Amino acid sequence: MSDQHVSVIYIKASLDSVWQALTSTEFTRQYFHSTDIKSDWTKDAKVTFYNQDQSIAVEGKVLEADKPNKLSYTWHVHYNPVAMAEEPSRVTYLLETVEDATKLTLIHDQFPAGSVVYPQISEGWIAILCNLKTLLETDSVMAIS
What we know:
The protein is of the alpha+beta class. The protein has helices at about 15-25, 25-30, 80-85, 115-140; strands spanning about 5-10, 35-40, 45-50, 55-65, 70-75, 90-100, 100-110. The protein is built from four helices and seven strands; from the N terminus they run βααββββαββα. The protein has a seven-stranded antiparallel β-sheet. The model has no long low-confidence stretch (mean pLDDT about 95).
């Protein structure tokens, strides 16, 4: 369990706006592979990313939800049968105000040895976060997500 992916991005938006974008279907379907996210964002609550056909893309459990500063949940892939057999990893978002922006740090860690999920997310997260930034700053998205 040594692999860890970290991405840091600055978004010209408030902490609350970034939090809303991370936790609301209204936003995730625009920047996060057209998925709908569902959770009540309380400790131990279920987190589910649904594809547009309502199949489950990713499922997890809320580990911590300290609005609007920190959000952490497990990440169990369902879109790939090999990855689905893997133990869940962990996603953590850290948000802090820096001048007129929000510094968003994403840490995806706790991968099992030989993870097939780790190489998949290593390039995927930055595209998702850049699209989140673009959406919040321009009210539009890029084709990439």
